[in-house]
Amino acid sequence: MMKYLQRLGKSLMLPVACLPVAAILMGIGYWIDPTGWGANNVAAAFLIKAGGALIDNMAILFAIGVGVGMSDDNDGTAGLAGLVSWLMITTLLSSGVVAMLKGVDVSEVPAAFGKIETQFIGILSGLIGAACYNKFKNTKLPPALSFFSGKRCVAIVTAGASLVATLILFFVWPVVYGALVAFGEAIISTGSIGAGIYAFFNRLLIPFGLHHALNSVFWFDVAGIDDIGKFWGTKPGGIFGQTGMYMTGFFPVMMFGLPAAALAMYHTAKDNKKKIVAGLLLASGFSAFFTGVTEPLEFAFMFLAPGLYLVHAILTGISVAVCAALPVRAGFNFSAGFVDWFLSFKAPFAENPIWLIGIGVIVACIYYIVFRFAITKFNLKTPGREDDDDTAGEMNVKLSNNNFTEVASIILKGLGGKENIVTVDNCVTRLRLEIKDYTLVNEKIIKSAGAAGIIRPSKTSVQVIIGTQVQFVADELKKLCKSEIVK
C-alpha cells in the first residue's frame, strides 16, 4: 500500500509543478484589486484569470497527470482515459444532471453535488484511467472490431468503469458530505478547541476535496457562523474577539510553517537531487507564503509521506486553536497568505494582526524541527528522497555502446526476454523493472551492455544502473517490449 501511495505521489509531481506560478499570479492580481477581483482593474483581471485557469482546474490536471504517471509505461493514452473518466463523473454528478435524474428542481439537489469537481475526483479519475490502460492496452479483438484493439479500447473500457464509479458516488458522496457538515456544526460550541479540531480536519480532508464541507460551516452561513462575511463587515452580527477565530491560525501555518517545512525537505533531500527539487520547493513555499495557496506543496508530499502529512494536520490544528485563544484576529477573502494578512489590518474585527509575525516565527521553527526530525528519523520519502538509491557514481556510468537500441536489446535478453517483463520505468540513473521470473535474469549479459550494476530489491523487482542516459535506454526497451503489440 505504501509503495502504491508513493507511486501516486510521484505521479502528481508533474501537475503539481504547474501550480505555484499560477497561484502567485492570482495573488498579485488579488493584491492589485482585493475588492473587485479584477472588476476594477484590467491588469488584475488578466493576472487572476491567467492563474485561475490552472488553480481552478487543478482536478483536471490531476486526472491527466495521475493517469499518465500511474500507467505502466507513462503513455499519454492513460492520461486521455483519465480525462474521459473525469468528464463522465463530473457531468453525471453535476447538480443539473442529478436534478434531471431525480426529477426535481435544482434547488432540491443536495449541496454535495455542487462540490463534485474536487481534487479527489480528479485523482480517482486518473486512477481509473490508468488501471483500465494497464489492464486493457494489449487487448486483441476479432477482425471486425480490430480498429478498437489495443490502446483504442482503453477509453471505452474507462467509460464503463466510470459509470460504475458514478453510481457508487451518487449514493455515497452526499452521505459523506452531509456527515462532515453535521460534524462541523456539532463542534461549534467547543470554542478554541473546536477551532483546532476544525483546522485539523480541514487539512486532513484536502486530499479528498471534502474540506469544502467543513469550510461551509465555519466560513460561510451554513450554521450561522459566516466567519469571512462578518470579519470583513459584509454580514451583520460580528463579535469583537470572536469573529475571525476560524481563520486566524491558518496564517502562521501558510505564511511560515509550510515554507519552513519546504526548507526542511530541501535540506534532507539527497545531495544529487537537491537541485532537482529546489525549484519545486522554493516556488511552492513562496506560493504558500505570498498567496496562501498550499496545495502545490501539500500534494508534493502527502502521498509520498502520508504520516508527515498527518503531522502537518495536527500542527495546523494546534496553531488555529492557540490563535483562537489569544487576543489576535486576522481574516482572508482569498487564503491565509501575506496578501490577505496585510489587507486585513483595517478590517472591522481585526485584532493585533501584527502578532502573527511573532507567532509565525515560532511556528516556522516548530515545523522545521519537527519535519526535519521526522524525515530523517523515519526515512520518509519526501521529494528528493524517493527509493531510487542513486549515488554520485551512478551519474558517470559509461555505456559500452552508445547505440541505445542495441544496449536495450542486450539488457532485454539478460532480463529473460519481453515475456518476462511486467513493467518498465526509470528514475534519474536506473531502469526500474518488474519481472515475472527472477531465475531468468542473467546479470552477466546485462553488464555486457555497459550497465554498472544490477540490484534486486525483491523477487519481482530489478534495478539496472545505467547512468544519466537511462531515459534513452528505457525508451528503446519499451519499444522492444511493445514490438508485437497490436495497434
From TrEMBL:
The lineage of its organism: Bacteria, Bacillati, Bacillota, Clostridia, Eubacteriales. Its main location: membrane. The keyword Nucleotide-binding does not apply. Keywords: Cell membrane, Kinase, Membrane, Phosphotransferase system, Sugar transport, Transferase, Transmembrane, Transmembrane helix, Transport. It is found in: Cell membrane. The chain crosses the membrane at residues 12-32, 44-68, 80-101, 113-133, 153-173, 179-201, 208-225, 245-264, 276-293, 299-323, 354-375. It is a multi-pass membrane protein. It comes from the Bacteria. This is PTS transporter subunit EIIC. Residues 1-387 form the PTS EIIC type-1 domain. CDD domains: PTS_IIB_glc. Residues 405-487 form the PTS EIIB type-1 domain. The active site is at 427 (phosphocysteine intermediate).
